Amino acid sequence: MKNFSQKPIVRIAVVLSILAVAGAVALSAAGHTGIVTSQDGRMSIATHPAARVTPAASPDTTLTVIAGNLSKYPNGVYFCCYGFTISGPTSFLGTAYWIAIPFTPTSNYTVNQLRASVAWGQSGTEGVTLSLNADANGLPGSVLFGRNLTSLGDFGACCTLAIASDSAGVPITAGTQYWVVASTSASTSSTYDAWAFNSTDMRSYNYAAYNSQSGTWSAGQGLLPGYEVLGQ
Prior knowledge:
Layout: H1 8-21, E1 25-26, E2 35-37, E3 43-46, E4 64-68, E5 82-87, E6 97-103, E7 109-116, E8 118-123, E9 128-136, E10 139-149, E11 162-172, E12 178-183, E13 192-196, E14 205-211, E15 216-222, E16 227-231
Antiparallel strand pairs: 1-2, 2-3, 3-5, 4-16, 5-13, 6-12, 6-14, 7-11, 7-16, 8-13, 9-10, 9-12, 14-15
């Protein structure tokens, strides 16, 4: 008999099903009833996907994809409706939740753009900080470049992307680990966002999570949200 518990897509489907049914907390108190969170607030689910798709902005064809998992299908660049919570410390959750994805380039590059499936949960100040960070002993370290972004898409829709650009670019070195970080700033302290999962790779990967209660980053493993790192 096959052991289906070892199949990543089956394991993830079971986890998401449990999350959708058990321990979910409606956001009606936050003014939006179409989204629920896990009991600890770290995961977000859009219960009513948008009827229309907004195609993602095409990437700059002069740039190379250095790392990422965004789909090339315009109607499914990422998975609309499940993702990691990205929140500020004064959001209705009362805690800042941030997520970071590691990547290691195979060649030397200059990073000019970060693209991520971060969307607004329609509560608090709309916005997110998207940054490229150095590594610090296997966790996110100092910011190499970052942008405070507004005018996000709505969580539960597809496929608007949060895009942070740096025309000068930041050099990165082959074989060195870096991080793509979605966080909040002083101006988005009340925000509630979600970083929607990718739709192309259901395997488990390393990531890092931050919450303001502990004040530290910690390592985790699971499905990754959608992102791309581009440069030349």
